[in-house]
Every structure is written in C-alpha cells, then in structure tokens.
Amino acid sequence: MELAWTLGCAGSKDQLQIVDVRYPNEWEAGHIDGAIHLPEDYLTERLGELDQARQVITVCPSGRRSQEAVTLLREHGFLAENLDGGLLGWEAEGFPLQTVSGEAGTLVEPEPPIDDRPEEMQHLQASFLDIISRCRSTSVTASRQRTSWRSSSVTA
User: What's 7-74 look like in SS3?
Assistant: First the structure.
C-alpha cells in the first residue's frame, strides 16, 4: 500500500488500524504513532484485539513479515494491506517513528524473544524441522535422478 494512499485517501487513523508485527525490541525503539503492537508470532491468538470493520495496514521494516500477516488477516476475514516499502520506506519519506516513551524513535535490528515454550515442545519442533529438511533433500535428489535418467534415455 502506497504511503500517500495510507495517509491521504484512506482517511484518518480512526478508520485504519496500523498493526506493527515486529519483535518487542523493534517496537520499543520506534513505531508509528497510534499503531497496535501485535507481533507476528502471536497474531493468530490476538486477532480479537482488532476491529474487523476497520481496514488493517500491517508494518515491519521491509514488508516481508507484514505481508505474511496480511495473508493471515485476510484468511480471517479482515480487509488488510501491507505498507509498501515497510518502515524503511516510511522513514525514507520523512515520516516519524516514536519510542514507547513518546520520544523520537528509530529502526533497530530484530532480536527474537527467548523461546519460553517447554523444552519438549522445542525439541519436538526441532525434530519436525529436521525431518522436513531431510524429506526435501531426498525429494530434490530423487527429482534430479529422474531428470538425469530422462536425459540419458532421450540421448540414447
């Protein structure tokens, strides 16, 4: 979503919900005034904090995480758009960020919060990701073998 549209055509912030999906350290260092902080990792469980009757504009530094949030929000019936250029574009256009204490804010590198899930859940996820990785690797190898076999049978 273009900055001009966000600020002009869409109307006031009363008609929009700006949802910042970044990590807490990023939010604390600088965010758009009036934005709602709903980290992407918790968005699904906190959807009830949003008004489905108002448009949602999602933000993060580049737009990658916020685009993933747009997809999720749309799946749950929200009218959602991603801020083109993200907060990097916002800053480049000269628009301000503010800290949690209301001072001038800045963008900082993300620091994912410590994983506070039970150790067995963390282990289960790591095992699951390892299995997926091995399956993808096996699938790619098998695909290459089929392609190689087809190439050799065509040239024979």
Answer: HHHCCCCCCEEEEECCCHHHHHHCECCCCEECCHHHCHHHHHHCCCCCEEEEECCCCHHHHHHHHHHH
